[in-house]
Specification:
about 375 residues, cytoplasm, alpha/beta, binds guanosine-5'-triphosphate, 6-stranded mixed sheet, Rossmann fold, 12 strands, binds magnesium ion, P-loop_NTPase, 8 helices
Length: about 375
């Protein structure tokens, strides 16, 4: 194996395993093509649909390429991140996203919009509008994506919305049970003999939908039941129902209540700069608009909601925080969400399990010693 690269002037420097061309620039090419749901409408829009090209965190893949490095001698461990990168790409990535909240707030529609695919395409329903129907039980859909050679296995956990029953207390219970069940399964598997083929279905993030028309004690109760078990991100569904002023007032009120009721939502650890981080924090709860319909505006096809007075474009930052949410989930914080799940939520579950098991063993020992 060649370990050293030779510069044109003959000096050697540590071999960098990846060439820049191998580094994926995340640019979407769909494996699952868009369902052709074209609705023809013509409205004026100044918005350009091109979202900025995703930035690679590996913008300098060769850590020894700068001219000032050429005169120095190195051992070569600055290539370690590249080695991890190569291994991760080979293995592929997985992510499990859950949606929860009141019924009819657009949870199922949003997950379809987020990943530019039809999560529910296996359903045999009549037309595009009916493709997503009311969610009546917790469902899991797994989709495989590939972008620029990077594989992602995405699992969507859709939960039935609450609010239809007369009594909505403990509506969070099935959702919490589901999260616990995944932890339990993982705990059992990782304590077993065959740890190579563990199916990891633990939930990395839960988008909790809050109604634009008003929120109440059930939302607080629901979020408090979830916040110590999962990375909780509140979102304001159907944000097109609010004016910009109403929206900012509503967001402020929700942030205050989250603080007042001691709800621990997912904390952004900081990404490219603290400014980005602050912007994300100020956007909570993300105000989202979702649609499964493609609308034609001045020759462009965009995901949107067509009203008699105009079109709400899902991916237009002036219309909703949809892009901010998706960028955060996919481009900037996916790995952190996974780390926090593993290091905080799962670790809490695991230590609680071990404490309970130890307690049981001690009690049993005491009981046996009394019998003797
Ligand atoms: N105005 C508006 N309507 C939306 C939006 N997103 C979805 N809808 C509509 O709201 C209705 C309910 O959407 P769903 O995605 O089924 O809602 P849900 O939260 O999954 O509902 P449950 O499965 O009953 O919990 C559908 O008619 C959608 O077209 C949105 O952002 N704005
Ligand atoms: Mg649904």
């Amino acid at each position: 194996m060649r370990m050293m690269d030779r510069d044109p002037d003959g000096r050697t420097r540590p071999h960098t395993p990846d060439s820049p061309t191998e580094i994926p620039q995340v640019e979407r090419t769909l494996q699952n093509p868009e369902p052709d749901l074209l609705h023809r409408c013509h409205f004026i829009s100044t918005y350009s649909p091109q979202s900025p090209r995703p930035k690679s965190p590996w913008s300098r893949p060769d850590p020894y390429e700068s001219p000032e490095d050429q005169d120095r001698e190195y051992v070569g461990f600055a290539t370690l991140p590249n080695q991890i990168f190569r291994k991760s790409v080979r293995k592929g990535f997985s992510f499990t996203l859950m949606v929860a909240g009141e019924s009819g707030l657009g949870k199922s529609t949003l997950v379809n919009s987020l990943f530019l695919t039809d999560v529910y395409k296996d359903r045999t329903l009549l037309n595009a509008e009916e493709r997503i129907s009311k969610t009546v039980e917790i469902t899991k859909h797994t989709i495989g994506f590939e972008e620029k050679g990077v594989k992602l296995k995405l699992t969507i956990v859709d939960t039935p919305g609450f609010g239809d029953a007369v009594n909505n207390t403990e509506s969070w219970k099935p959702v919490v049970d589901f999260i616990n069940c995944q932890f339990e399964q993982y705990f059992r598997d990782e304590s077993g003999l065959d740890r190579k083929n563990i199916q990891d279905n633990r939930v990395h993030c839960c988008l909790y939908f809050i109604s634009p028309y008003g929120h109440g004690p059930v939302d607080v109760e629901f979020m408090r039941a979830l916040h110590k078990k999962v990375n909780l991100l509140p979102v304001l569904g159907k944000a097109d129902c609010l004016t910009p002023l109403e929206l900012s007032q509503k967001k402020k009120k929700i942030r205050e209540e989250i603080e007042r009721f001691g709800i621990n939502i997912y904390q952004f650890p900081g990404c490219d700069s603290d400014e980005d981080d602050q912007e994300l924090k100020d956007s909570v709860p993300f105000a989202v608009v979702a649609s499964n319909i493609l609308v034609q505006i001045k020759g462009r096809r965009v995901r949107g909601r067509a009203y008699p007075w105009g079109v709400v474009e899902v991916e237009n930052p002036a219309h909703s925080d949809f892009l901010k949410l998706r960028n955060m989930l996919v481009r900037t914080h996916m790995q952190d969400l996974k780390d926090v799940m593993q290091e905080t939520h799962y670790e809490n579950y695991r230590s609680e399990c071990i404490r309970n098991m130890t307690r049981l063993v001690v009690t049993e020992k005491k009981r046996l010693s009394l019998l003797m």
